[in-house]
Amino acid sequence: xxxxxxxxxxxxxxxxxxxxxxxxxxxxxxxxxxxxxxxxxxxxxxxxxxxxxxxxxxxxxxxxxxxxxxxxxxxxxxxxxxxxxxxxxxxxxxxxxxxxxxxxxxxxxxxxxxxxxxxxxxxxxxxxxxxxxxxxxxxxxxxxxxxxxxxxxxxxxxxxxxxxxxxxxxxxxxxxxxxxxxxxxxxxxxxxxxxxxxxxxxxxxxxxxxxxxxxxxxxxxxxxxxxxxxxxxxxxxxxxxxxxxxxxxxxxxxxxxxxxxxxxxxxxxxxxxx
Length: 274
Prior knowledge:
Mean pLDDT: 94
């Protein structure tokens, strides 16, 4: 299945419309190009609907949220739903403020999402409607570990049932779940948490893979999470070999995403099906 997912992305070069944040926008554009897609970053209310019409998927990221872009997100999301193209939500920092939490609820009310990806604190906020996220990083008390893994899988599956979306929860251990199935993915490296934007970049990759495979949302999301994790592992190894630091790691991460193929996925994926 991974081979088909990658092949379709390269064949179709999906155009990914991003309404995203200004902290990570350049990295998101570059990693979409690296994995075989074509990015468009457009967030003005007067053009988002028209831009969405020429794209294969839409990524909505609330990282640098403001009233202007909320209107654009809703307008674009509704058009994507009308066209039947995948819509991916990244609820960055949900729970850190009432504004963010309320916006997520509004987006969920107005738009039908194909995939929702966040860290565990963000996903708990989406599920419960409020939370106590500190900034954009997951709270330590929420961290996924072996003792709470089954509980968090159930949460993800319930949220999938509630929203109709594939749920991806990423951190030291990654989960990808729908109502009746879940994958536990143990790829990646802790250095990924030392640069900004790895979560945003992953959401952009999910948008690319889903844009190329709109009928395979679960498998596309799982493949994207594995590809990002493997790229992180390889980037860390090269950073260590070259005595580099976090900036080198960031560059190598995008480099390795551009080199991901079926062989790397088959040999490197650490997936457990639940």
